[in-house]
Amino acid sequence: MKKIDCLSAEEIKEIVINFSEQSFRGRQIYNWLYHNNVTSFDMMTNIPVSLREKLSSEYEFTYFVEVKRLTSSDGSIKFLFRLEDGESIESVLLSDGSRISGCISTQVGCRMGCKFCATAGAVGFKRSLTVGEILAQVAALRKSAEELFDESLLNLVFMGMGEPLDNIDNLKKALTILLDDEAFGFSHRKITVSTSGLISGIKKFFQMESPVNLAVSINAPNEKIRASIMPVTNKNHLNDLIQTLKNVDLDKRKRITLEYVLLGGVNDSLAHAKEFVQLIKGIKAKINLISYNGSPYSKFKTPSENNVLQFQEYLINNNLTAFIRKKLGQDIAGACGQLAADYKGV
């Protein structure tokens, strides 16, 4: 059986026409799927029974079941979902007291192999998620945000399990549906995709009609350090990545976010900050500094608070916009992949 909730508006319209039905039924079905987030053809009450029967004879909904949730003292909630093949993924509702954001996964595991990442260390790589599995996370988090916080989910970050640009085709299709006012209706300014720095994926990303925000994990001031902690560097060299980011055609109101995970004793010194400032000159960007959380699957240490503040101060003194990302969900296996690994008994 094919999955109905992996399809675009045009694909659904074509199905309806092939069933010898009026084409406007396609838009009605699309709205039921992605605006109302129904999980059964029987719930599509303005669709004729005969058409619902035709659909159910050839199509089904993506299997997606919540199996566990953990609530942090800061209000963030991590969800573990089981997929049709028995694999598990994580999604998170992040609450910082002023807004709710949804953190979305794009793969079961990740093949990038970043040395400090719980997903790489604990789960490895299994497969990429379908469009339906990506969208099902958003639908589940949106429903939970309304039920638990009495708030609408307006912000999405693709920073969960997996490398989004390693699943670029399904990501782009999901984003198109998420941005459609007749579907999920998110603003492109409220969605951020995070990448470890796949250059080919970044180029494809900026070919999108309405590109959302991009965050790029740099995490090092030079090639040697980056290659030692991020194997993706071996095929996506740092200087090539920096040049790509300098050359992208950005909306005048947007900036690329450069993410820098500070690892104690590895990349967090004042000398590293000075080198980093020289590296990123010419990129229209803001910087998110992330103090490493720590993980039972990693050997790296959390940097000292003094080093984090010193790093930020140097960037600010060099006219760069630099924030220290607030740590959320530390008491609920906050790093991506930890909950899935624990569930699997890794």
From TrEMBL:
Kindly indicate whether the keyword ATP-binding belongs to this entry: no
Organism equals Mucispirillum schaedleri ASF457
Return the InterPro entries for the record: Aldolase_TIM, Methyltransferase_A, RlmN_N, RNA_MTrfase_RlmN, rRNA_lsu_MTrfase_RlmN/Cfr, rSAM, rSAM_sf
Q: Name the job this protein performs.
A: Specifically methylates position 2 of adenine 2503 in 23S rRNA and position 2 of adenine 37 in tRNAs.
Q: Where in the cell is it found?
A: Cytoplasm
Q: Tell me which residues bind [4Fe-4S] cluster.
A: 110, 114, 117
Q: Could you give one GO CC term from the UniProt record?
A: cytoplasm
The cofactor remark states:
Binds 1 [4Fe-4S] cluster. The cluster is coordinated with 3 cysteines and an exchangeable S-adenosyl-L-methionine.
Q: Where is the signal peptide?
A: none
Also noted in the record is: Reaction proceeds by a ping-pong mechanism involving intermediate methylation of a conserved cysteine residue.
What's the family?
Belongs to the radical SAM superfamily. RlmN family.
**Residues in the active site?**
90 (proton acceptor), 336 (s-methylcysteine intermediate)
Biological processes, Gene Ontology terms = rRNA base methylation; tRNA methylation
- Stated EC number for the protein is 2.1.1.192
- Give the protein's cofactors: [4Fe-4S] cluster
Among SUPFAM superfamilies, the record links this protein to: Radical SAM enzymes (SSF102114)
Cite the binding residues for S-adenosyl-L-methionine.
162-163, 194, 217-219, 293
Q: Which reaction does it catalyse?
A: adenosine(37) in tRNA + 2 reduced [2Fe-2S]-[ferredoxin] + 2 S-adenosyl-L-methionine = 2-methyladenosine(37) in tRNA + 5'-deoxyadenosine + L-methionine + 2 oxidized [2Fe-2S]-[ferredoxin] + S-adenosyl-L-homocysteine; adenosine(2503) in 23S rRNA + 2 reduced [2Fe-2S]-[ferredoxin] + 2 S-adenosyl-L-methionine = 2-methyladenosine(2503) in 23S rRNA + 5'-deoxyadenosine + L-methionine + 2 oxidized [2Fe-2S]-[ferredoxin] + S-adenosyl-L-homocysteine
Q: Which HAMAP family match?
A: RNA_methyltr_RlmN
Indicate where this protein is primarily found: cytoplasm
Q: Which GO terms describe its molecular function?
A: 4 iron, 4 sulfur cluster binding; metal ion binding; rRNA (adenine(2503)-C2-)-methyltransferase activity; rRNA binding; tRNA (adenine(37)-C2)-methyltransferase activity; tRNA binding
Q: Which Pfam families match?
A: Radical_SAM, RlmN_N
Q: What class of enzyme is it?
A: transferase
Name of protein: Probable dual-specificity RNA methyltransferase RlmN
Keywords noted in UniProt: 4Fe-4S, Cytoplasm, Disulfide bond, Iron, Iron-sulfur, Metal-binding, Methyltransferase, rRNA processing, S-adenosyl-L-methionine, Transferase, tRNA processing
Q: Which gene encodes it?
A: rlmN
